From TrEMBL:
Belongs to the TonB-dependent receptor family. This is SusC/RagA family TonB-linked outer membrane protein. Keywords: Cell outer membrane, Membrane, Receptor, Signal, TonB box, Transmembrane, Transmembrane beta strand, Transport. The keyword Membrane applies. Gene3D superfamilies: Carboxypeptidase-like, regulatory domain (2.60.40.1120), TonB-dependent receptor, beta-barrel domain (2.40.170.20), TonB-dependent receptor, plug domain (2.170.130.10).
Length: 1071
């Protein structure tokens, strides 16, 4: 890495040295000849040189030129124009449409730039400005709704991970995440969340490594979806690729400075958080006292009379009906430091329910980028600072990022380029997840007393700095029985983490001729991370200190021979031949105290009550060597044949199976070449088709059995076999993909569409199958299984209005994926994960990947739910019924951009139809009586919680065994609305949504003002919003997108975090 840094700064010095002034300055404006609108991004170059610039957002430019210069104006889809400067200092130009200029370029695999005309596979791009406008710290979530065929979900936690799946899950148990590539170099995007965290048993979501990518440094993002698009990346790109191009300097531009500053505030969307009933308080029912069975009864004040005490040991709200005239002792009556000590208070609902525990999130973002260039080189240097404060107390993430990129022409034939990126992330108080005491959402959504005032819990903690909780272990005992004081949890049982990361590359390119060049590149992706977790003495859980250290290093060495040769007037050959060596080194060690902490408040491994157990250490070294080639034959720029292939050799597979090949054949036909004269309104049309194979290699350590070495007993060393039997004969997974598509545009590019059909079969799945424990193992690893994904993707655009002062552009995308497990060896069902509540996630033969199984209703032959003689639902005898499918029916997005002079308004609507999730929050929260559905009046107009004999209770909708409607009324008590008498299927919800995902309005100062306020070249003011409105959803009190982590385990909510509606202001200054 030091060598890359040294080389990069040498390049920067060369570039800066070469900057020089030109003889004279020419300014002007470039507009459209069709409608007079300003044209930003037009290339303005001095003919015969590399001196050039681009027009700004208002079409204006300024360039230094010699006196005898000719300026060349060019832009994609427009006719190139040359203008002799002469004696003029101002030149305004109008560019007309060129329906034959189909040279729009796309950055593809290995950073190769190809014209969209020849591209034989589906790829969609988003410009970086669209992703950075809303100032989110993780740009990946901003792709949601913008790209057809991409499914993105997140956990709603501070700095949490984002799940990115393209065209469905292809691996049964392996990685299904897209590959991330920056400037042609793959970077790691893994997370270190435990399997328990991913299955909802508790833990923290530490996010994935894509969060280290600076949104302000992104020029564009291209999503490569199919195997044909990613085959050159080999075994690591079976799941598609997100190709990121960073910002670059411009030759002869001089020095430019861009400053961005913004602040965003997030307001909790109350529709995604618990809503509480206000009629009843603590308890499980009338099970306690004699005089009033809803309360404990003891003589507290010594007057010889039994006093009423709130059931402080309970964590449900099926207790007594609120009565402001009833005086009772609450939890704080037993806290000697409380102003309510030994005092009664009215029996009423809390004035401050858990909603008041949540605070507004705040995100501050500042960045500065300096770019420049000379005749020989370019550079960009940037620094960005993010400060994010979460919705929970004592939660924040700070991030510092430095980005540098430079190019330099050493000679006419030899050039160098380099990129260095550094990020430092420090997190404090990330949110606990799943069913765990550190996840307060589980507390607030599942097990809570509606009479508890959160503000009083806050006062108690800060007054005593003790775990003075509402959920006490007994009357007069202030220690916890089930739940800690929520402020104790946030300020004492917190975590912290840090990650330092460097990634970048250095390369040389030698141009032998104008059609042949050789590039050598070395890249490094390196980071170290530390995670520390603590549980304080006095908590409900055993006190603990744990730490986890991990280091990641990946080296990539590429050698690429690129060529672009006209074989004749009609035939062109473009391609590359190359090789790649990838070495990945991962080391980790974790340890924790044993049996509690000896000294409260001291967090270190030596502060352990019992001897430390052996730390868990792991080290993996993986090497993959690959050679590849790509040939594209172009006939008269309208017919293309593309041949590609790669051979990989992987150290994670056994000899004999460790070398494997990936072929690809593709073709595209620009059929509009045959209609351009006869159908002038038909601007462009292209057919494309491809077939490719690409694969997933085995994880490290999957081909050899090894031993665990736990702590010895009385000095005697121990060793034990792993619970999984590994396989020395594994083969790589393989995905076989076929794709066809059509691209069109009409009316000189005013409207058009792109439609793709694909079919992918992933075979030789590497899976750990469960086996009898009589074998000495729990699982064995084999190649078994096949998954099919097939579907359609549609994207379309239209510009309904376009005048010199106003334009309106509408973009739509839609996709549908159908997924099926076609083959499984030795079993008909593979369980991918199991959750609390008796629900599991599965891959079953003949079913979609990701079916939810659990207990279900039993249905009458007439299709209605069956009710037994006692009035309760008949529940299936097993928990193995298919009750849901996590895969959506379809997804889509609609974006609009309206521009009027210097004002631009854009907004994005994100849609997902279908897909199911299981809510443990509803499973328990309805049982414990937290939600409004468990109170109020029944169909008779009486309180539903009254006894049936008093006109209360409910009637479950359904039929008796004979098919007649159920009329038996049952008591509405603890469990009636929740898990106690209902199957798991009752808590399966449709995860559909329609969201106003983004909205921005930007005002750019006009050139007439900018010219008067030197040194500014541009000033933009923006008001931005994200997740502003959930227009439609089906699950109550939660966001259907809220999950646990990235990875294969989806479709489950436990302690789901609410969404925030984010509104902010941003200013951008350009010098």
């Amino acid at each position: 890495m030091k060598r890359i840094l040294i080389m990069s700064f040498i390049l920067l010095a060369f570039v800066a040295f070469q900057l020089k002034a030109q003889d004279r300055t020419v300014t002007g404006k470039v507009t459209s000849a069709d409608d007079g609108t300003a044209l930003p991004g037009v290339n303005v170059v001095v003919k015969g040189t590399t001196t050039g610039t681009t027009t700004n957002t208002e079409g204006s430019y300024s360039i230094n030129v010699p006196a005898d210069a000719t300026l060349v104006y060019s832009f994609i889809g427009l006719q190139t124009q040359e203008v002799v400067v002469g004696s003029r200092s101002t030149i305004d130009v109008k560019l007309a449409s060129d329906v034959q200029a189909l040279s729009e370029v796309v950055v593809t695999a290995l950073g190769v730039v190809r014209t969209k005309n020849e591209l034989p596979y589906a790829a969609q791009s988003v410009v970086g400005e669209e992703l950075s406008q809303t100032r989110t710290s993780n740009f990946v979530s901003n792709l949601s709704g913008r790209i057809a065929g991409v499914n993105i979900s997140n956990s709603n936690t501070l700095g949490g991970s984002t799940n990115v799946v393209i065209r469905g899950n292809k691996s049964l148990t392996g990685n299904n995440q897209a590959l991330f590539v920056i400037d042609g170099v793959p970077v790691d995007n893994s997370n270190t969340n435990t399997s328990g965290q991913q299955q909802g048993t508790g833990g923290y979501d530490y996010g994935n490594a894509a969060a280290d990518i600076n949104p302000d440094n992104i020029a564009s993002v291209t999503v490569l979806k199919g195997a044909a698009a990613t085959v050159l990346y080999g075994s690591r790109a079976a799941n598609g690729a997100v190709v990121i191009t960073t910002k670059k300097g411009s030759k002869n531009k001089g020095i430019g400075v861009t400053i961005n500053a913004g602040v965003t505030t997030g307001f909790v969307d109350k529709s995604t958080f618990a809503k509480y009933q206000k009629e009843y308080g603590a308890g499980y029912g009338p099970y306690y006292g004699t005089d009033n069975p809803f309360f404990y009864e003891e003589d507290i004040n010594g007057d010889g009379q039994l006093d009423l005490i709130v059931p402080v040991t309970e964590d449900a709200s099926f207790g007594g009906k609120f009565d402001p005239n009833l005086q009772v002792y609450h939890w704080d009556a037993f806290d000697p430091t409380s102003p309510n000590y030994q005092k009664t208070k009215p029996w009423v609902g809390a004035q401050n329910d858990p909603t008041s525990f949540l605070q507004n999130s705040v995100s501050n973002n500042q960045s500065i980028f300096i770019d420049g260039g000379s005749e020989k080189g370019t550079f960009v240097l940037g620094f960005t600072r993010n400060e994010d404060k979460g919705i929970l107390p004592n939660s924040k993430i700070n991030k510092n990022m430095v980005n540098f990129n430079a190019t330099y022409d050493i000679t006419d034939k030899l050039s160098a380029n380099a990129s260095v990126n550094f990020s430092q992330i420090n997190g404090l108080g990330r949110y606990g997840t799943g069913y765990d005491s550190k996840n307060l959402m589980g507390n607030f959504r599942q097990w809570w007393q509606t009479n508890v005032d959160v503000q009083e819990q806050k006062d108690a903690y800060f007054r005593t700095k003790r775990n003075m909780t509402w959920n006490q272990s007994g009357v007069g005992l202030t220690g916890p029985i089930f739940w800690d004081n929520p402020y104790w949890t946030r300020y004492e049982n917190y975590q912290n983490d840090s990650r330092s990361r460097y990634f970048g590359y250095a390369g040389l390119t030698y141009k032998f001729t104008d059609w042949l060049s050789l590039t050598g590149r070395a890249a490094l992706d390196s980071y170290n991370e530390l995670q520390e977790e603590r549980i304080a003495v006095g908590s409900i859980d055993v006190s603990e200190y744990a730490r986890f250290n991990r280091s990641f290093r990946e080296y990539n060495y590429d050698l690429l021979l690129n060529f672009n040769k006209d074989l004749s007037e009609s035939l062109n050959l473009t391609g590359l031949i190359g090789g790649n060596i990838r070495k990945t080194q991962i080391e980790s060690i974790s340890a924790q105290t044993n049996g509690g902490l000896l000294i409260p408040g001291l967090y270190g491994l030596l502060n352990t009550a019992n001897p430390l157990e052996a730390p868990v250490e792991q080290a993996t070294n993986v090497q993959v060597n690959g050679v590849f080639a790509n040939l594209t034959f172009g006939f008269r720029d309208f017919l293309f044949l593309d041949l590609a292939g790669r051979r990989d050799q992987s150290s994670t597979l056994p000899k004999g199976n460790n070398a494997y090949y990936y072929p690809s054949v593709s073709s595209s036909l620009v059929f509009s070449e045959f209609t351009k004269e006869s159908v002038p309104w038909f601007t462009y049309g292209k057919l494309r088709a491809n077939y490719a194979e690409v694969g997933n290699t085995a994880p490290a350590l999957y081909i050899q059995n090894y031993y665990d070495v736990p702590t010895g007993i009385n000095g005697t060393p121990l060793a034990s076999v792993e619970s999984t039997k590994y396989n020395e004969n594994l083969k790589p997974e393989r995905t076989k993909s076929f794709e066809i598509g059509i691209e069109t545009s009409f009316l000189d590019g005013r409207t058009g569409f792109d439609v793709t059909y694909y079919n992918q079969r992933s075979v030789d799945q590497i899976v750990p199958l469960p086996v009898s424990r009589a074998t000495g193992y729990d699982f064995k690893v084999i190649n078994a299984g096949e998954i099919e994904n097939k579907g359609f993707e549609v994207s379309a655009f239209v510009t309904p209005v376009k005048t010199p002062s106003f334009s309106w552009t509408l973009n739509l995308n839609w996709s549908r994926n159908r997924n099926k497990v076609k083959e499984l060896a030795e079993t008909n069902n593979l369980q991918l994960g199991s959750f609390q509540g008796g629900v599991s996630l599965n891959a079953a033969l003949g079913e979609p990947y990701g079916t939810l199984r659990g207990s279900n209703y039993v249905y009458h032959e007439n299709g209605q739910r069956l009710v037994d003689e006692d009035g309760y639902y008949v529940i299936s005898p097993t928990s193995n019924e298919i009750i849901g499918d996590v895969n959506p029916d379809w997804q889509g997005g609609i974006s609009n951009t309206l521009k009027y002079k210097g004002i631009a308004l854009s907004f994005l609507i994100d849609i997902k139809k279908g897909g199911d999730l299981f809510s443990l929050d509803q499973y328990y929260g309805l049982a414990t009586g937290l939600y409004p559905e468990t109170a109020g009046n029944n169909d008779l107009g009486n309180p539903v919680r009254d006894a049936v004999a008093d006109g209360g209770g409910i009637i479950f909708e359904g039929v008796k065994e004979d098919g007649t409607p159920n009329t038996t009324r049952v008591d509405a008590v603890y469990g009636t609305f929740g898990y106690d008498v209902n199957p798991a299927a009752a808590f399966i919800y449709d995860a559909s949504y329609v969201k106003l995902r983004e909205a921005t309005i930007t005002y750019s100062l006009p050139e007439s003002i900018i010219s008067k306020i030197a040194p500014f070249k541009g000033v933009d003011f923006s008001v931005v919003g994200r997740n502003l409105w959930i227009i439609h959803k089906n699950i109550p009190y939660a966001d259907p997108e809220a999950g646990l982590s990235s990875g294969n385990i989806q479709g489950y909510q436990s302690g789901a975090y609410p969404t925030t509606r984010n509104v902010g202001f941003n200013v951008r200054l350009r010098f």
